[in-house]
Write a structure and sequence with these properties.
mainly alpha, 16 helices, disordered N terminus
């Protein structure tokens, strides 16, 4: 574990973690099982929540979609409170609470009568609160039990495990769709039970951190760094997460008139690559600074967007295979981004404000995920050049902003060090500079005795 400045002196560190140490750094075996169960439950319900509202509750597709979007956006309001709770030292309790909130959302979903959009909106809100609070709470828990590059690998392992659970849950739910509305209701019930079991497992870990002992900026203390460029850029970076789910199916089906099987194959390949490569790529990138890796992610994503633009220009015949090949590059950029962004936040942030910093980062992530579907569909309606050109330009600009913020942080750090050095020198001088010499003490001259002391001479 490096003790140097975050993202700089430890950039030459190469982390090699075996599965046991990776599980231990991620919170322990019970917490790993909790993550897997939670991801499995999320994979069961999340892709079919829209279908549940349309088929089971008999709501219109537009009303269901708007309700889910509003619920996800309104759930972001809880993030400041989550950040303050984390800064008071809570860790596994917040993770368990984020899962229990989703249990309440599933219960409301099962209790919603047909045609009741308001109760469905309340259920979507509680599900959204849990989904938004979990990433920040999970990152804070991992930052408590692991430090340095081991923490980065642990966060990457958690993401890989979560994607595996989401994929398995989605496949299991797809297999159960033949049962109709009854199967959807059963999936919702199983999801609630999975969230409840995951919450119990996460709470049993009993991870709690004293605010002063939380590993923030390698033990450093002080005010929270300004990360405005990083947070704003993260809103653009996070668009890459919705490219395989929204942008590519839209382009393949509507513009290239390709089979929907291409979209499904790309999505499966994205999931498999994330599960298998997230940890190795994060460990491989540990030889560089986290900020440099995040900039590299922006460059790779920009190149992939330009590759999509070139692939779509090939037309119906070669367009779909070319898009599938470029999607691998986009997934690599996504993996690099996911392995460096939140780790950079945890490395730069002092201990006592780590929770609030993670909450702000999750807020920017949530905003990006919420607006990206609307932005992508609006840009795609104007053609491939507008869609991919805009994404490439915005991502490259975001990477440049992250690189520029490095100079600002360095200069502000130097100024702070200079002020502290001046204060230390002033205190040292006050303690060690010799005082002015005191004037000599002049004692009155003692009278001379004509006879020895104690001898008395009598006069006649």
């Amino acid at each position: 574990m490096s003790t140097a400045a975050p993202g700089t002196a430890d950039m030459a560190t190469r982390t090699k973690i075996d599965p046991r140490s990776l599980v231990r750094a991620s919170g322990g075996p019970r917490y790993a099982v909790a993550l897997a169960v939670d991801a499995l439950g999320t994979g069961l319900l999340r892709p079919f929540l829209l279908l549940y509202g349309v088929t089971v509750l008999r709501l219109s597709a537009s009303a269901t979609g708007i309700t889910m979007t509003v619920g996800a956006i309104m759930a972001l309001v809880c993030m400041p409170a989550v950040g303050r709770w984390l800064d008071r030292g809570a860790r596994s309790t917040v993770v368990a609470a984020s899962m229990l909130v989703r249990v309440l959302g599933v219960a409301l979903l099962l209790a919603t009568p047909t045609g009741n959009v308001w109760l469905f909106a309340t259920a979507a809100l509680f599900l959204g609160i849990g989904n938004q609070a979990w990433p920040a709470a999970h990152a804070a828990l991992v930052a408590t039990v692991a430090q340095g590059r081991e923490r980065d690998a642990a966060l990457a392992g958690g993401r890989a495990l979560r994607n595996a659970g989401l994929g398995a849950g989605g496949l299991l739910a797809t297999a159960c769709l033949a049962g109709g509305n009854t199967a959807l209701q059963a999936l919702a019930a199983v999801t609630g039970l999975a969230y409840l079991a995951a919450a119990a497992l996460a709470w049993s870990v009993h991870v709690h951190a004293h605010p002063a002992a939380t590993p923030g900026r390698d033990g450093a203390d002080g005010p929270a760094p300004r990360m405005r460029a990083l947070l704003i850029s993260n809103v653009v970076y996070v668009f890459c997460l919705n490219v395989p789910e929204i942008a590519l199916p839209l382009v393949l089906v509507t513009q290239l008139h390709a089979s929907p099987a291409w979209s499904a194959a790309i999505f499966v390949a994205n999931t498999v690559l994330v599960v298998t490569l997230q940890v190795p790529v994060t460990v491989l990138m540990s030889r560089f600074s986290r900020r440099s890796v995040l900039i590299l992610a922006g460059v790779v994503l920009t190149a992939s967007y330009l590759g999509f633009l070139a692939a779509t220009s090939l037309g119906h015949g070669w367009g779909a295979p070319a898009v599938a090949m470029v999607s691998v590059v986009c997934t690599i950029g996504e993996i690099i981004y996911a392995g460096s962004a939140i780790t950079l936040v945890t490395a730069l942030t002092p201990a006592h404000v780590l929770g609030r910093a993670l909450a702000r980062f999750q807020l920017s992530t949530g905003i990006g995920l919420a607006v990206s579907p609307a932005v992508i569909t609006a840009l795609a309606s104007r053609g491939s050049a507008v869609l991919w050109g805009s994404l490439a330009a915005a991502t490259l600009l975001s990477a440049s902003a992250v690189a520029t913020e490095k100079v600002q942080e360095r200069s502000s750090t130097v100024a702070a060090v200079g002020r502290e050095h001046h204060r230390q020198r002033t205190r040292w001088r006050a303690r060690h500079q010799p005082a002015a010499p005191a004037p000599p003490v002049v004692w009155p001259a003692k009278p001379r005795l004509r006879h020895p002391v104690g001898v008395c001479e009598k006069r006649p």
